[in-house]
Specification:
It is built from 13 helices and 2 strands, in the order H-E-E-H-H-H-H-H-H-H-H-H-H-H-H. It has helices at 15-45, 64-70, 73-105, 111-118, 120-123, 126-136, 143-150, 165-190, 195-202, 207-235, 239-244, 256-266, 270-305; strands spanning 47-50, 56-60. The protein has a two-stranded antiparallel sheet.
């Protein structure tokens, strides 16, 4: 008599269940570190919250905090400074980054070493780099005033002047993030197919015609993505402001994120800070949606023509 126990085959996990299991850790992290804080901020923005009083988190007040934000002159001034910073810094970074990428793409020797050196500003700790640049801008023993003295030019108070503080922060941001634009653009250049360029060379097209009709149209998705990422990062500028100027002199370099920090974590008006942050988030989402929509429409039209 056969005493062996016949084992039933184990039921295999379905593809849908397996996909949910793979997504579950990421979704849990997103919920606790992104969605829950967002919903909590929306709730605070509709309440009266003053942590310096005995009330603490008070009752619902409707859209009162949003009305305060839209009528706050300091909020709009900080928004204006943030937009100016983002437009200037991102524009310069895109121009310099694309130019560096084209130069690196034409290199035959030491390309890997140069790319490694470009990563150094991105790999360094923001706090440490900010302190180094703060000492470089120092009016008494800073490097930049030493260079000015070598050429017989008057020394400047780079971070203490209302006219020079914001441009000084822009220079720091451009130095730190231009390599990011260059590296991503270089990766896009190296991934382009070679057949269209070989055909253009056989047709006798000039370098300008090749770049205008082939290179930049094919690089548009990459450049748009870099532009969106850098714009988002620029309008939420915080670390360089804290390390270099702390929003000063006065409010000359007080960007929107630093103003939110000052309202929420110094004055403890989390309701007003939450309302401003929600408006800031909404404007950022609309901006990114418009950029990506125009990119998708352009790509769709190009695909139809082909």
């Amino acid at each position: 008599m056969n005493n062996e126990v016949v084992q039933k085959p184990k039921k295999a996990i379905s593809d849908r269940t397996y996909a949910y299991l793979l997504l579950a850790p990421a979704m849990i992290i997103i919920f606790f570190f992104a969605l829950y804080p967002l919903f909590y901020a929306i709730d605070l923005s509709s309440r009266h919250v003053d942590l310096t009083s005995a009330v603490g988190i008070g009752p619902k007040v409707g859209l009162k905090n949003y009305r305060f934000a839209l009528n706050d002159d300091f909020f709009w001034s900080a928004t204006q400074r943030t937009i100016i910073f983002a437009v200037v810094a991102v524009s310069v970074e895109m121009i310099f980054g694309i130019a560096i990428a084209f130069l690196l793409n034409g290199l035959r020797w030491f390309k890997g070493i140069v790319r490694g050196l470009l990563l150094l500003p991105l790999a360094a700790a923001p706090a440490a780099v900010g302190l180094i640049w703060r000492y470089m801008y120092h009016p008494d023993f800073g490097v930049y005033n030493g260079i000015m003295a070598m050429f017989g030019l008057p020394e400047r108070n780079w971070l203490g002047s209302t006219a020079l503080a914001m441009p000084s922060v822009m220079v720091f941001d451009i130095w730190q993030w231009t390599p990011f634009v260059a590296i991503i653009t270089l990766a896009g250049l190296q991934s382009l197919p070679k057949e269209p360029f070989e055909a253009a060379e056989l047709d006798g097209a000039s370098i300008w015609q090749v770049h205008r009709r082939i290179t930049f149209p094919m690089l548009t998705p990459v450049l748009t993505l870099v532009f969106v990422l850098r714009s988002i990062d620029a309008i939420r500028l915080y670390d360089p402001i804290v390390m270099l100027t702390s929003g000063g002199p006065g409010t000359a370099t007080e960007t929107l994120t630093y103003y939110l920090y000052r309202i929420g974590l110094k004055f403890f008006r989390l309701d007003q800070a939450s309302a401003m942050s929600i408006l800031f988030l909404y404007a950022t989402i609309v901006f990114c949606a418009l950029i990506m929509r125009s990119l998708l429409k352009a790509q769709g039209a190009r695909a139809e023509r082909q």
